[in-house]
Amino acid sequence: MATTDASTAAGADIDIPDAATERTVTANGQRVHYLTAGDGDPTLLLLHGGIIDAAHISWGEHIGPLAEHATVLAPDLPGYGASPVPDGEWSVPHHVDTVAAMLAELEVEDAVLAGVSMGGGVAVGVGLEAPERVDRLVAFDPFALGGGLPNGRLSWLLANVQVTNYLSVALMRRSRGFVESSVNGLCSEGNEVSDVTVDRVFQEVKRPNAGAAFRKLRSYEVTREGYRTDYSPRLGELAVPARCAHGRGAALTPLSVSARADERAPDPGLVVLDGCGHIPPLELPERSRELLVDVL
What we know:
- The chain is α/β, with parallel strands linked by helices.
- It has one domain (3-295): Alpha/Beta hydrolase fold, catalytic domain (Rossmann fold, 3-Layer(aba) Sandwich).
- The chain has 12 helices and 11 strands.
- The protein has a 9-stranded mixed sheet, sandwiched between helices. It has a two-stranded antiparallel ribbon with strand order 8-9.
- Mean pLDDT is 86; it is low at 6-12 and 154-159.
């Protein structure tokens, strides 16, 4: 099992949750930085979203409490956080292969996977491609479970031009206030993420390659016809229980995506979160933890 401790991790300068330890592992031909805490059964692997995100942003406030119930692993997917930018394509299937390889390298079997947005889609993909490593999964507002673009051809155009992302990253680097308004813009009206989370995003966006992984992912995933990766037709193949939890007010991935997935996946159990937008673990942290502890 090829792992290294925090002394060699590229993320030594990030705001690591007190309960967590930094490690790295070589998986799918690249070095993956991850946080870990706890030593109980089962193993819970937490997957973050896209845009400007990382393990300590989406899941930093959850790692300590969840470590009381499981061994927690929270990787920075390739190109995010302290995981180096890889060569070649960024895609959901690439992240799926990396997570599956990470579980194999760490000799983890029967893991519980939980992911938000992009990470939710990755969790579903790992459940399909490496079922021998997964016992059950939870997807919060998942990506890659529907082919339609939210704004039609405009989404395709923005994915290819990418000017808005470059501009947003530049503005976020200059202003913590813009970071706060941008992150809260993903929330349901009246919800706000914590100051700790805003600070972590503000810190993360100052990395030299901030936004690069998301731009490359969009360039690959967004086509004229729709999203390239869509696991929804394959949900009936899942050999593990899969639950979706979706904010009723989510805009980036509409509730209909999880509702359709719930009809197709085995052992369904859709949880609709009222008063919640696109990022349940950050908007409704206590409710999101309750859901995960229940699944554990």
